[in-house]
Amino acid sequence: MSVSDSNSDSRQALYEKGVEVFNSSLSITADQFVESVDAMAPGLGRLIVEMEFGDIYNRPGLDIKTRELIIVASCAALGATGLGAVKMHIPAALRHGATRAEIVESLVQVAMAAGLPTALGALQAATEVFAELDANK
Q1: Nearest to 124 by CA among 91, 81, 94
Q2: pLDDT of 19-58, one tens digit each?
Q3: Interacting residues of 81 by C-beta distance below 8 A, sequence separation 6+
Q4: Nearest 5°: CA angle at 81, between 76 and 87?
Q5: Are 103 and 93 in contact (CB under 8 A)?
């Protein structure tokens, strides 16, 4: 087996782990995500699943709930409150054991680092996600 084959096998293993984490976390499948991202930037969707969900999410030291709360707060701080970020990761945080109160407090904390308008936008996004989840019960 060449180094290239070994690297390819390793990346495939990371991708498969990423698909498992992605599918257990988010409301769309990894395949749907990869397809939608690849329509804009071929290869990027697979790389995101491989690196973020296959590698980083599987590192020791933090559980997935904490990682999801960090993603929600980070995306909120960046102002990424649309479907592709905050709204996508709030249900994932809930699936992995975060409470609505923990999500709200994470977003309140963002106000001190990223500003009140940013935090208010993220809190509005959270309110919309909670309402959608309640409506689908």
Answers
A1: 81
A2: 999 999 888 899 999 999 999 999 999 999 999 999 999 9
A3: 75, 87, 121, 122, 124, 125
A4: 105
A5: yes
Residue 76 contacts residue 114 (beta carbons within 8 Å):
yes
Instruction: Give yes or no for a contact between 86 and 126, defined as CB atoms under 8 angstroms apart.
Output: yes
Full-model pTM: 0.84
CATH of 63-137, picked from 2.40.50.100, 1.20.58.340, 1.20.1290.10, 3.10.180.10, is: 1.20.1290.10
Cα–Cα distance measured from residue 68 to residue 91, given in angstroms and rounded to the nearest whole number:
9
How many angstroms separate the Cα of 117 from the Cα of each of 29, 107, 123?
32, 11, 10
